[in-house]
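Record format v2
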Amino acid sequence: MLNSSIGKKLLMALAGLFLCVFLVVHLGINLCLLRDDGGEWFRAAAGFMSSNKIIKVFEVFLFGGLILHIIYGIFIEIKNRISRPISYNKTYASQTSYFSKYMIHTGMIIFAFLGLHLINFYFVKLGWTPAPQGIVAVEDKHDFYNMAINLFQNPVYSFVYIGFMIFLGFHLHHAFQSAFQTLGVNHTKYNTLIKATGTIYSIAIALGFSVIPVYFLFFWGK
Amino acid sequence: MKFKLKIWRQENAQAKGKFVTYELDNVSDDCSFLEMLDQLNETLVDKFDKPVCFDHDCREGICGMCSLYINGRPHGNDSGITTCQLHMRRFKDGDTLVVEPWRAKAFPVIKDLVVDRTAFDKIIQEGGYVSVNTGGIPDANAIPIKKVDSDLAMDAAQCIGCGACVAACKNASAMLFVSAKVSHLALLPQGSLEAKERVDNMVSKMDELGFGYCSNTGACEAECPKEIKISNIARLNREFFVSKLG
């Protein structure tokens, strides 16, 4: 099964959909930052995520799924480039879904963001990188609330963050409906629903994550 | 009408090809793209130049023999047609037309604009048939088939194997072709008996021949002269999972 092109794509799609679910959970926790409660809800949610045993198991799946998605994505891209050794002079005027042509590019941008994100948060928790400093004092290496405030108070970081989220939205816009097609889910009755859900999902994720830096830059503490 | 033609010329499979530009005048807007190339070839022969080689056969849009990647689109800038059905009135007077062969590792160039599409035949040989003895014409109602299934099977069976799907796909994937062939038989009772072996063997052969992986861009569906839908690709995926897991 996994030797075949369709089998590899199935794994990519399943890993991708799992990552889609993770993003919803992550966004849910991040939106707690918008509550003006000194980080009470956010700390409680983040504390639960880093201490719960079941979540720990999911964390292994998350990193596994992510690595699988990336490795297969790169493998398939290389294979696809080999499949057309001489490229066209006039390229691809065909009508296609726009974002579908740039999945590897948006994927690489998201990967770059992931590196930055891990350095700023996850590696801090592991004690590998120093905590982001700024206008508020970071209590310890688990104090993600104050780390987030310090980062989002920096306009350059915030706008770069929003930029990354827009690319994440582009990636998800094609990814969501493409995963269903790969899984064999294509029906005239449900296609519109799947595509609309994908569009709403990708906009909600990009917008949801972008709202947080905007809040901390312009509204927090005022 | 007058055109500037930028055409891929390649002496043989081993030779390094290049684009050669030709000017062609007095082209009727009623002539087809292939007739325009015939006209060009006549002028080349008159000058003792080698004519441009291109594939063609029925010139009725049903055989799947003609190809040509014209200005970034397989079969040119019209929908649901093959190159032989593309007319010069679809272009503007004075246009530059870039004409290239299908580009894919699995479709090597033989000469100029002619490519070897034997790869499709090899995929068909792996299961694009039903193993039944032919005989007298059976009664039309002997095997009842749902109308919706027979319609979908007929839609898939329209594939003429021209290779435009591979040419249009940024990954040079043959999934639309294979899915049409798998679908048209899998949907019918006669084909369902060998469905598992068929999908398994055809997908293995497709992978072995060096076609790319489908990334669901939909370019194949947009360019297919027979308007085969990518819902067939989803069916191919389902058939494949069932063959492996069922």
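The CA atoms of residues 142 and 220 of chain A lie 21 Å apart.
The mean pLDDT of chain A is 91.
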